[in-house]
Amino acid sequence: MTEVTIYADGACRGNPGPGGWGALLSSGGKERELSGADPATTNNRMELTAVIQALAALKRPVNATVYTDSQYVIKGITEWMGPWKARGWKTADKKPVKNQDLWQELDRQEARHRLTWHWVKGHSGVPGNERVDQLANAAIDALLNRP
Q1: Which bin fits 55, alpha (ψ -120 to 50), beta or left (φ > 0)?
Q2: Quick check: 45 and 38 in contact, CB under 8 A?
């Protein structure tokens, strides 16, 4: 199975506000950058979108190591998702899970692959994480500078 390294990050100017996401996929000495933006979103939605888009870009199942600076994504995927699913996508206090549509899509994408999740401290000089932060912010800039 192919080994892939993924860095993913989201950004938002205001929360909610215009947001962007960036992802970097590396495998076999090749890299692919992805990014996008949304005019009205939240930081958490952009963090999730970055990971989902990276996984969706993979054409076949892989072993992937996923790096994100989002505690929301890491805790959601490693701690919260199982109980949410068991409760019918409800939180412990019986409220609907926020961003349920994205969590369900991430769950579908994750099922295709063998993933290992790692949290990295944001803005700490980790090259892959710094690059995806730049991609996310460039996507916001491009969105805001459209005529």
Answers
A1: alpha
A2: yes
CB atoms within 10 A of CB 23: 30
Q: Can you name the residues that pair with 96 across neighbouring β-strands?
A: 90
pLDDT by residue (tens digit) across 93-135? 999 999 999 999 999 999 999 999 999 999 999 999 999 999 9
Catalytic residues: 9-10, 47, 69, 123, 133
Q: Where are the domains of the chain?
A: 3-71+104-144
C-alpha R_g of the chain: 15
Q: Is 16 helix (H, G, I), strand (E, B) or coil?
A: coil
pTM comes to 0.96
Alpha-carbon distances of 66 from 22, 33, 62, 125, rounded to whole Å:
13, 14, 12, 17
Cα distances (Å, whole numbers) of residue 7 to 24, 97, 113: 5, 25, 16
Domain 3-71+104-144 CATH superfamily: Ribonuclease H-like superfamily/Ribonuclease H (3.30.420.10)
Q: Helix 43-56 and helix 127-144: axis angle, to 10°? A: 110
| Cβ–Cβ < 8 Å for 77, 68 | no
